[in-house]
Specification:
This protein is of the alpha/beta class and 296 residues long. It is built from 13 helices and 7 strands. The chain folds into 2 domains: 179 residues, 3-Layer(aba) Sandwich (Rossmann fold), CATH 3.40.50; 101 residues, Orthogonal Bundle (DNA polymerase, domain 1). The structure holds S-adenosylmethionine.
Amino acid sequence: MSKSEHIPVLLNEVIEGLDLSSNDTVIDATVGGAGHAQAILEKTAPSGKLLGIDWDAKAIERAREHLKRFSNRIILKTGNYTDIKQLLYESGINKVNAILLDLGLSLDQLKDSSRGFSFQSEGPLDMRFSDQMDTTAFDIVNTWPENDLVQIFQEYGEERRAARAARNIATARSHAPINTAKDLAELVMRGAGRRGKVHPATRIFQALRIATNHELDNVKQALPNMIDMLSSEGRLAVITFHSLEDRIVKQYFKPLAKEENPRIKLINKKVIKPSREEQVKNPASRSAKLRIVEKI
Ligand SMILES: C[S@@+](CC[C@H](N)C(=O)[O-])C[C@H]1O[C@@H](n2cnc3c(N)ncnc32)[C@H](O)[C@@H]1O
C-alpha cells in the first residue's frame, strides 16, 4: 500500500486548539492519512492514547502503516464516526480529552480513480467512503427520478442550474448508462453552456458525494454524541470544507454555548481559516474552516 499523500489541514491550529497534554486520550474520528493523528500522538507522548476511526478500510490500513511506531498507543477502527459511542465502548475507552473531526475526503481518495471522486476518474462512478454502503453515485445518477436529482443538486450542491443538469443526465441515461465520473463531468460540462474558473461539475459532484454518504446527516447525528463522550474540559475541533457543513456545526455549537447552564464554551468566537501561506502551499485547504469548543 502506497504512503498517504494527504496534507493535514490547519495542523498547528488544531494541535494548539485541542490544548493537548501528555498522556491525554484523543479520538481522531476521521483519521484518513493520519497526518493529524501523528502530530496528536507526538504531543501526547509518552503514553497518550489515540483511537483513530475511518469509514474507509483502505485509509485505516494506510494509517496503521504510517503510525507503526506508535502501535502500542493506538487503536484503529474501520467504522462510521456516527457510531462513536459504540466504537469507544468496544475499545474500552471511557474518558476522552479531545476529539477531532476533519470532514470531507482525503487526497488519497481523490486520486484513487477506482473511487470515482474526481472529474478525471475513468473508474466507476462510486463515491462511497465505505464499501459497506449499498448505494453508489452510479445508482443515484442512473436510477433516481429526475426531480430527486434536481433536489439534491439544489440542496447539497447549491447549484443554480440544477434542473438543467438533471435534465441532461436524464436524457443521456435514456440512451446508455452514465458509467464513469469522467463521463458525468463531461456531460455536465457540455450542458453548462459557459466556462468559468471552477469546473461546472464541481457542485454536482459535491451533491452526489453528500447524497451517497449521507454526509450532512452524519455530522448532525455525530456532534451531540461527541459532546456527550468528552470529559469535562475536553475539546472538540471540527474542520469543514463547505458552507453547508460549517452551517450545521455553527448552528449546533452557538445555541448550546448560550444556554442558561451551557454544556460547552466556544474556544474561537470567529471561525479559524488557513493562513495565506497554507492556502498557497496546499490549495485543498482553501475552503477549510475550523471551530473548537470545550465541554464545561
Ligand atoms: C479530510 S480526510 C481526513 C484527513 C486526516 N485528518 C489526515 O490528517 O490525513 C477525511 C476522512 O474522513 C473519512 N470519513 C468521511 N466520512 C466518514 C464517516 N462518516 N465516518 C468515518 N470516517 C469518515 C474519509 O474516509 C476520509 O478518510
